[in-house]
Amino acid sequence: MGNTFWTVLFPFGICVVVWFMPRVKIKDKKKTCALIMILASTVELVMALNLMVCDLRGISIDVFDVSGVGGLGLHFMYSGFRGIFGVLTAFAWFVTSLFSYEYMRDDTNVIKYDLFNLLTLGATMGIFYAADLFTLFFFFEIMSFTSFVWVAHRQTREALYAAGTYLGIAIAGGMAILMGLFIVYSQLGTLSFDKMAGNTMVMIGSDSKANITWMFVAAGCMFVGFGAKASAFPVHVWLPQSYTEAPSPATALLSAVLSKTGIFGIMLVTLDVLPMQGSWGVFILMVGIVTMVLGGIRGVMSNNFKTTLAYSSMSQIGFILTGVGMQSLLAEYLMWTNAVQYADVLSGMDGAWYMDSEIVAEITKVFGMAVNGTCLHMLNHSLVKLVLFMVAGVIFMQVGSYELNQVRGFGRRKPFLLVTFVLAAAGVGGIPFLNGYVSKTLLHESIAEYGALLTLAEGSSIEPMLSATSGLMKVSEALFLFSGGLTVAYMTKLFVVLFIQKNSDKKVQEAYDAKKNYASVLSKFAIGVCALPIPFIGMLPNRVAKPVAEYGLVRFGLSELLEQQKENIHYYSFKNLSGALISITVGVVVYFLVVRIMMLRGVFSNKKKEGYRDVFPTWLNMEKYVYRAVFYTAVPFVLGIISRILDSIVDIAVVILRNTVYSDRALPYELPEGNRVTHRIGYSMERIRLLYYAVMRKEGYEPKNYEHKLAMKGTDIFENFRIIERSLSFGLFMFCVGLGLTMIYLLVVN
Fold first, then answer.
1. Which of 11, 505, 525, 618 has the highest CB neighbour number within 10 Å of its CB?
2. Are the beta carbons of 603 and 616 closer than 8 angstroms?
């Protein structure tokens, strides 16, 4: 028997043990924490595998709900897709904990890192096993704040700057998701994934355009939050610096797992909040295209090893989003053709029914390619990035830098590093017989087969719908192959830097060549076990990749459609290989034009010691010149003007009221300073002192001017009270403004 709740709760329970570590008298606390992390991740992996085994054997999996949390409670569920990524999450934490044993050995904040590492693990498992949007949001916010500590771990100025950007984007994204949740709940009356899609379809059937518009608004809000975590354009700006500044084990998890939580959220929005809405699919498709192209361009032009891998992650997320967009677009076509079939049968139009049946079969086939390709590329990308970022960690431990000019030549005479890096780099590049080729072929064919759909649908009722997006599909296919070429180019750049070229300093190169024990056995095991599946998935796609993808798609209600596709796909036909060949050719051209000519200094000069440079224009830095410029300068300036205007309105109103309704009563005479109280007390004190001199018959009386002193003191005291009063008034005023805006929003939504 298995229980999803205990799989989520277990990492949080182990946090208590790590929390008390600084208070326990143990000789080597760092080593003890590392062993606890390895043990905890091993147990978590066993628990996740147990859930999958129970599901495969038909044994029921217990679902334990926590009522009362946030008023809606926390609800969990298990499905094939969730099971795969639950196992992947636990596996990623397991291998990175093995790698961290050596990488974090000399770190001064190991206990803090392990504590937040466990918190992030529990939150991530909670996301993948969530049964409703509120539970997903609850753990998504925990994950955002705990993973923020990863980015700030080094406590340098650069790390804190990157962490600030990461946290700002995370908070803004979380607020956007929350706004989307409010709208979804107000429109559908539920946040459960099992009910949302059905309720949305009922809404679509009622032809309520206003409600459908609100659902698109909700989906857009949630896309901002989930897209930020997935590093989709244009909310990707946190990615390069955060990936570069975080420790390599944490970066591996950010890329391999945490980015998938964002994709997971976008998929749920696409399939449950806006099911079978082609316009939403077009939007996701376009975002995916821009993300994969921009990420690829930045990856090629970067002169930093880890930053290149960061932009590579962004580009591969674009490939995945392209698959999600194709799913949504093709799902609408399936719904339309099925509806046409039903209408034709009722009207007795057998010929039209037969023609539409062929269209349905072809759309189902292409739809299955998009679905399988999306699921597989998520899995393949995770495996590849675990290898690449741990290799980056090995390099950093030995070199102390990620700059290409510093790491140049490090990989020479290191066969293990060569084999694992080549497998991962070629895999993500879509080279045949490796895992990335399989998933990219499926995604590419889901776009390329669009032309065949258009030809088959000629003269049918669905032809206008297909024709409307035919131009977009042609552009998408071209940019898809071009982005694949960019992947080949930047991975070739890293390969040449590490294993072909020599360091410009001969002594440094000799030191690199002499390093034989550059990684511990645990580190090599962690890297090797992640690299091992890469060739098996590529060489046996129909035996390995296809069953995994189909198991993962049961939850989404797609298993019935995919049952129609019994035949195996011929991945290594000339047609499919030609797409990979085009991308490889593009990659070679881009590598020589951009990397060898533009980036590598000294190619056409005698300055042979000069090396790689970042050629991407600095003025295109969106994080610095768009987001920070807007939210740190423009927004405060505009809000300051608005606040000044509102403050002036209040002052004017007060003056008008004081001169009309609340006019002051005129004093019988005007005091030169102070008020009546200070005047009376000061005058009395002066008289008492004068009387004292008269009674005691003292001479030399001089006035002490008590009235002036008390007037000045009173002015000081009352001015302080007025400052406090003005501050409280302004604070209460701004609170009322915010409360008013909230009430207006709730009235509009309801």
1. 11
2. no
What are residue 2's DSSP bridge partners?
A: 61
Cα separation, 382 vs 460, in Å, equals 42
**At 61, phi and psi to the nearest 5?**
-110, 125
Element (H, E) at 2: strand 2-3
CA-CA distance, 235 to 225, in Å (whole number)?
A: 9
Handedness of CA 348, 349, 351, 352 (dihedral sign): negative
The span from the CA of 40 to the CA of 14, in Å, is 7
Q: What pLDDT is recorded for position 603?
A: 45
Nearest to 75 by CA among 15, 14, 8: 8
Name 252's Cβ contacts closer than 8 Å, sequence gap at least 6.
92, 96, 99, 385, 386, 389, 390, 393
The contacts of residue 688 (CB under 8 Å, 6+ apart) are none
CA angle 551, 55, 36 (to 5 degrees): 100
Residue found under tokens 């109280």: 677
d(CA 302, CA 331): 38
Residue 23 buriedness (CB in 10 A; 0-12 / 13-18 / 19+): exposed
Tokens of 709: 């002193």
Terminal alpha carbon distance of the chain? 43
Q: What percent of the chain stands above pLDDT 90?
A: 29
Q: How far apart are CA 697 and CA 689, in angstroms?
A: 12
Tokens of 560: 């019935």
Render pLDDT for 676-723 as a digit per residue (tens, 0 to 9): 677 778 778 877 877 777 777 777 777 777 777 777 777 777 666 666
Contact 287, 228 (CB under 8 A): no
pLDDT tens-digit map of 227-264:
999 988 888 888 888 888 888 999 999 999 999 999 99
Tell which residue, 93, 182, 169, has the closest CA to residue 137.
182
Output DSSP code: residue 3.
E
Q: Is residue 73 within 8 Å of residue 65, measured between CB atoms? A: yes
Task: Please name the amino acid found at residue 387.
Answer: V
Neighbouring CB atoms inside 10 A of 99's CB total: 27
Phi/psi region, residue 258 (left: phi>0; alpha: psi -120 to 50; beta: rest), is alpha
User: Tell me, what's the pLDDT at 677?
Assistant: 73
Query: Which of 309, 322, 299, 244 shows the shortest CA–CA distance to 489?
Result: 299
> Between helices 706-749 and 157-188, what is the axis angle to 10°?
50
CB atoms within 10 A of CB 90: 24
Query: 130 forms bridges with which residues in the sheet?
Result: 76
pTM of the entire predicted model: 0.82
Peptide bond into 234 cis (omega under 30): yes
User: In whole angstroms, what separates CA 59 from the centre of its chain?
Assistant: 34
Q: How many residues does the chain have?
A: 750
Burial class (CB in 10 A: 0-12, 13-18, 19+), 326: buried
Domain ranges of the chain: 1-217+224-250, 276-610, 617-656, 665-749
pLDDT in tens, 136-153: 999 999 999 999 888 888
Sequence-ordered alpha helix ranges (H) in 591-675: 622, 628-629, 635-659
CA-based nearest residue to 749, from 134, 176, 182: 182
Task: Report the candidate in 122, 128, 123 with the shortest Cα–Cα distance to residue 77.
Answer: 128
Three-state secondary structure call for residue 403: strand
